[in-house]
Amino acid sequence: MPVPQGEWGAPLLTPLLLISALSVSAQVSVIVDREVNAKLGSDAKLNCKVKTPDIISQVTWQRKLSPNNENFLTYSKGEEPMHLTPFGQRVKFLGNGDLGGSIRIPNVTLADQGTYLCIFTTFPGGTKEAEIKLVIQVPPKITLEPTEPVLSGPSPSPIAVCRAWAAKPAVNITWIFSEARYISEENSTNYENGTVSTCSQLVTVPLPGHNGRNVTCVVSQSDGKSMESWSQTLTIQHIYYAPEVKAKVIAKDDGTIQLSCRADCNPPATEFLWKRDEMDLPDNEAEELGATRLLSANTWKGYYACVAGNEVGYSSGYIYVQTVTVPGTCNVHYIPLILLIPSLLINIYVAVIHYRNKKRERYRNSECCLRFRSNCTPILRHIQRLGCCGEDHAEAPTDDAGNATLSVQRDNQHIDSQGGPSPSSELGGHDRGASGAILQCTSMTMARDPDSSVEDIS
């Protein structure tokens, strides 16, 4: 019995067609980058290629717009690309029509951001598409500026402002202010094109020591895959404070003195006033030279004060001047002393020579050397009375014969009393004195040190 066509034909044919369509569709694959990031003003490349054994008949690019998508470029193998819109006129086709269909968008703008469709038409597989999201990154325009001048004091105040203008995506701002305590205050402004401006203020207790120091603003931006940072540095110079005054005195070569006044303040001091003993220095005694004064000698001694002022306030520095030594005058007092040195040395030399000569003469006149042929022992004072000192050979003086004879006799008597031989028997061959005895005295030159206190007699 034949099967009715209306009951069996359609049910058997429909599943076969579905299986065939699914097998063909499964063989077509479009490969793209799901998201592409490009900086404002750069070129954006949208990669797209297909993997299929079918014949590629056409490549089409669309942008998702509301309410309908927009075709802006098509390409058929063997033909030139067709740029269908003004936007499409900017786009360059990079594919060859076989397996590649990439494009490049030069000099991208914020308007170029969006979702793009890459569509391949194949035979017999039909069409296959994939989406690419193009994200435009806008680097910030960074400015770092000081605030209006602030007064040094205990209250926290903003001292610097860092702004990152019209960035996309929004940025993060941090500060570097070494060895100082601070906080940051931040606010943002969003715009219709998707950019964001961020403003950050550096807040601290302003101190005079902050002037001249650097503060750095660091701006960071992330595109979701990588982080990029920029920085700017500012030197703080706008913290105002009243003068801190120091005074000093400087001696000048011309006999005057200079009073110097140093005022540490911001802004610089514009007014200086010198006083002595709480009175203004008269103009006829001092010449004003900004922060200095030149004074004559009759105005040196006193208690001086320098008053310095700027637009913040006034302050004073004090110094007491008693005596001043002018440089170069102290060396004059050494000239007479230098001239006296040769004369002093000559006088010392002459005195030493004279002293040594006198000492030698004294020893030479006080030394007598006697030699006796007998065993008698002479006494120095007796020898001196005989006049035998300082001569090579001398006899007893005869000017007073009686005295000399008497002395000899006394000596002989003394010797005899000791039990020694008589001088007369030993010296029998010589002339005798009145008492029949004579003493021969011979002096001998002694080799000795004049400074020695020991006498050598032979």
Automatic annotation (TrEMBL):
Q: Which Pfam families match?
A: C2-set_2 (PF08205), V-set (PF07686)
Molecular function terms, GO-annotated: cell adhesion mediator activity
| Subcellular location, principal | membrane
Compositional bias of kind Polar residues: 413-425
Membrane-spanning parts:
334-355
Do the record's keywords include RNA-binding?
A: no
- Protein's GO biological process: heterophilic cell-cell adhesion via plasma membrane cell adhesion molecules; homophilic cell adhesion via plasma membrane adhesion molecules
GO cellular component, alphabetical, reads:
adherens junction; plasma membrane
Which residues belong to the signal peptide in this entry? 1-26
Q: How does it sit in the membrane?
A: Single-pass membrane protein
The Ig-like domain extends over: 15-133, 140-235, 243-325
InterPro entries named among the record's database cross-references: CD80_C2-set, Ig-like_dom, Ig-like_dom_sf, Ig-like_fold, Ig_sub, Ig_sub2, Ig_V-set, Nectin/Nectin-like
Which terms are listed as keywords in the entry?
Cell adhesion, Disulfide bond, Glycoprotein, Membrane, Repeat, Signal, Transmembrane, Transmembrane helix
Keyword field contains Cell division: no
Q: Where in the cell is it found?
A: Membrane
Q: Where is this region: Disordered?
A: 413-434
- Protein family: Belongs to the nectin family.
What protein name applies here? Nectin cell adhesion molecule 1 like 1
Q: Which gene encodes it?
A: nectin1l1
